[in-house]
Amino acid sequence: MDDVIRAEGLHKRFGDTRALDGVDITARRGTVLGVLGPNGAGKTTAVRVLATLLKPDAGRAEVCGYDVVKDAVQVRALIGLTGQYASVDEELTGTENLVMIARLLDFGRRDAKARARQLLDRFRLTDAGSRAVKTYSGGMRRRLDLAASLINRPEIIYLDEPTTGLDPRARNEVWDTVRGVVAEGATVLLTTQYLEEADALADQITVFDHGRVIAEGTSDDLKGRIGRQTLVVRASEPYRTAQLTAIVAELTGEKPEVQGPTGLVTVPVHDPRLVSALVRRLDEASIVAAELALRMPSLDEVFLTLTGRPVEEAEAELVPEGSVA
Ligand SMILES: Nc1ncnc2c1ncn2[C@@H]1O[C@H](COP(=O)(O)OP(=O)(O)OP(=O)(O)O)[C@@H](O)[C@H]1O
Ligand SMILES: [Mg+2]
């Protein structure tokens, strides 16, 4: 038993909204726990409770054995938090931001500067360190945010939607950073709206909906429960699309969808081994695939399977959200 985060039966209401409606969470030391869910599912609320920023109405949570309410001081010393909305000061430079936060964490002047330098270097922001943050790209900001949360070498790091709004390259940079801190022994709790992100980073995934945990397990467990991936295939010669579609239909026993203009054929598959069978059939028919992939189910597909309703409906039920960090 080495659960560094353990929460049981967390409840939190805001007026009529049950932001957390009986949530259990556990994270093992040195792993990444992914908390996956659509807008308004309660992810940020859970992070704020675990970060001692918000008291739960009921239930309890421990971080490394310390109670987040009674032992908030000890908990704060163990955690680093990167909020959903950038927490660095736009007008200050990267270096100034990190030095300021280090000073707030009781670093001496010299140590604060040294730590800032170290982190800027590690996040490849050394050159940008002397520029105001308002001139940074989204990816650079997120990296600076992440650097800021690592100043006091926390054992537990909460990352609230660390890559929302980033382009694929910046997202990959953040992913690499997360892998790096975990390799050094930290435990990461990461919230995300992307199944792909949870799949790429998380050892365990907890799926939230309406303040409840609706599923948990490894990425493979979840994929197994969802029971399908999507096969995407396109013939390099468009006139062969009909023949390709017929082969795919025959192999899967499903009716593929064909996108007229692109000739992209998609179909749900339950057995990934089907791909090799398809490759053989295409080969026999001398059809060259310009594109052939198994795609992860999207969050929408996960939701539809787990809850029986699409994400949009879940969101429509929500009251408009203010700027809740
Ligand atoms: N301070 C608050 N006051 C009122 N309502 C709140 C507050 N914080 C959260 N809520 C509500 O609680 C619910 C859960 O919000 P939360 O921010 O935890 O969701 P989330 O999963 O982080 O969503 P997102 O993906 O949009 O960040 C939402 O309906 C939200 O509007
Ligand atoms: Mg949130």
In short:
The chain has helices spanning 43-50, 72-78, 94-104, 109-122, 138-149, 168-183, 195-201, 219-226, 241-252, 274-284, 299-307, 311-316; strands at 3-14, 17-28, 32-36, 58-63, 66-67, 79-82, 156-160, 187-192, 204-209, 212-217, 229-235, 257-259, 264-269, 289-295.
Which features would summarize this protein structure in a list?
325 residues, alpha/beta, Rossmann fold, Alpha-Beta Plaits, 2 domains, 6-stranded mixed β-sheet, 12 helices, 37% helix, 27% strand, globular, binds adenosine-5'-triphosphate, binds magnesium ion, P-loop_NTPase, ATP-binding cassette domain-containing protein, nucleotide-binding, antibiotic resistance
The low-confidence parts are: 319-325
Q: What is the CATH superfamily label of the largest domain? A: P-loop containing nucleotide triphosphate hydrolases
Strand content: 25-35%
The secondary-structure element order is: EEEHEEHEHHHEHEHEEHEHEEHEHH
**Residue share in helix:** 25-40%
Cα-based radius of gyration, to the nearest Å = 23 Å
How many distinct helices? 12
The tally of beta strands, per DSSP, is: 14
Give the overall silhouette: globular
Biggest sheet, in brief? 6 strands, mixed
Total count of domains: 2
Assembly form of the protein: single chain
**What is the top-level CATH class of the largest domain?**
Alpha Beta
Domain ABC transporter: 5-235
Subcellular location: Cell membrane
Organism: Actinomadura spongiicola
Protein name: ATP-binding cassette domain-containing protein
